[in-house]
Amino acid sequence: MPPARPTFLSGTLTPFLYPAFFESRLASVACRSRLRKPFQWQLRCNSTATESVNVRPDTQSSRLDPTADDYSLTPFADRCILTVEAGGGGHGCVSFLREKYIEEGPANGGDGGSGGNVYIQAVRGETSLHKLARRRLIKAGRGRNGQGKVKGGERGTDILITVPVGTIVREIQRHDPIAIMEEEHWKMESYEGEAEESEEGKGTYRKDRWLVYPGTVPAELNRMKFPKLPPPRRSHLAALEPQAPMWLDLDQHMETPMLIAAGAMGGLGNPHFMTPFNSRPKMATRGDEGLKISLQLELKILADLGLVGLPNAGKSTLLRALSNSRARVGNWAFTTLQPNVGTVVLDNHKGRPLVSSRNRNGEIRENFTIADVPGLIEDAHLDKGLGLGFLRHIERAAVLAFVIDLSAGDAVEALKLLWREVSEYETLRGKELNAETERRMVTYNPAGRSPPPSDEPDFDTPHLDPSPTPLPFLTSTPISSKPWFVVATKADLPDTQANFEALQDYLGRVSKGTQSHPSSKKNAWKRNVQAVPISAIHGEGVQVIPQLVMDLLDE
Ligand SMILES: Nc1nc2c(ncn2[C@@H]2O[C@H](COP(=O)(O)OP(=O)(O)OP(=O)(O)O)[C@@H](O)[C@H]2O)c(=O)[nH]1
Ligand SMILES: [Mg+2]
């Protein structure tokens, strides 16, 4: 008599889970996938229908059971430090009208063009910051210099930085040349006083601010009377810049870019310095330097679904089964060494969507993303294996799927081990956060005493530090309070059914509250925790996952 059919999310289980079925057909595939490890090959194939299996290991690979060299590696970075620089202004021009019969015409030098602006835009479809991580400096174009015949210089080219939705932009340090010039200007104003004012508002020659007529010799330069420097000017677009220090949470797709650094103003041409006493001024001002800001970009949300599992559990195969990803799959631990983010298309606009769901803004969801991270091992929270970096990625997924290999021993124990690591990490992060809050706490400082030395970032440094200290990692929702479910994989292998039933029974008790949550955290999420049996290698059982993820994303 066949064993009783267990009920699952979709009602009944597909036939691949039945021992009689896989012994005759699927064991051949299992053997092939294990051929790359000699011990397992012997173990497995001794027990099942090995004689009928005549499969050469690397010739019959499929998309879901690829050979180890059939993969594409997508570069990935979830954090980067970047310096953005607004374009500097072009210089003003010193020129005079020259025409037939007008030998010494009036000044006609044009103003310099303003520098290009730097914009940022969060767009759907981007999943990584690796392109920006490669470029440490992003600079907008400089304005062109003014020309004769009162021709103004051309504006510098703007730069648009595109980042994935869910990026947090934090400022580390900034160098604002206009702020420095403004300060200098007001100091001069107050010190010089009226005595200087009466002297025709005379200024002095400064090489960094003035440009003189080409060919002016030093002796002539000493005799030249320079007017007072004009007050520093900011582009009117600077009013649209976010307030300093910048902290942007770009958690939505942006239709239009946002300005983060406005280009500097161009210098003034010589007609600006004409006076009744000097109709042919031989000086113009230089263009201003652009604003420089060091920014730390970090992905707050890595993906909608994060796959958590022991090494070799089948996470990358599951990612391949759900998306078009070509993540590397191999029958050994730590095949995956950096996160792979795949996109599951729900609606390709070619008929009825796979799942119809709307996000919090009411927009129809066309896809969702999955992050396949390297496997966790015992004591991963102590940075063992590939350690803390990957626990940090798990922290940034909205929903978690614990991938458990049904053929690798007690599934409940495996789940408990994973949760233990995750919750230890959560405790560690909590402690780090408390220390950080204490450090930033404002202490009462009675008037008259000098304030304690501050280690806050300096927001107006004369020169930017080329390799600034990174800011602490962002904090997000505690992992245990995220919605989660279990993907019980390799259900096509023999003797996995009892293991699955025990797992389902355990999760039922956790949901009802008769069993403590595997993380042992108080506010842990445990509303109807589901277990989905699948065979990722055959793409069976995975169809229910998109709907389940959509339901949990709406939680
Ligand atoms: N029989 C069977 N084998 C599977 C299934 N899913 C994955 N495998 C095999 O299990 C092995 C490991 O699969 P991976 O997807 O690389 O596992 P992983 O969890 O990504 O491993 P790491 O990247 O090392 O953490 C491969 O040989 C797969 O072919 C399944 O559903 N059934
Ligand atoms: Mg993998």
TrEMBL record:
One of its GO terms (molecular function) is GTP binding. Residues 74-302 form the Obg domain. The keyword Ion transport does not apply. GO terms for biological process: ribosome biogenesis. Pfam families: GTP1_OBG, MMR_HSR1. PANTHER family: DEVELOPMENTALLY REGULATED GTP-BINDING PROTEIN-RELATED (PTHR11702), MITOCHONDRIAL RIBOSOME-ASSOCIATED GTPASE 2 (PTHR11702:SF31). Residues 437-469 are annotated as: Disordered. Keywords: GTP-binding, Nucleotide-binding, Oxidoreductase. GO terms for cellular component: mitochondrion. It comes from Neocucurbitaria cava. Signal peptide: none annotated. This is GTPase of the mitochondrial inner membrane that associates with the large ribosomal subunit. Its EC number is 1.14.11.27.
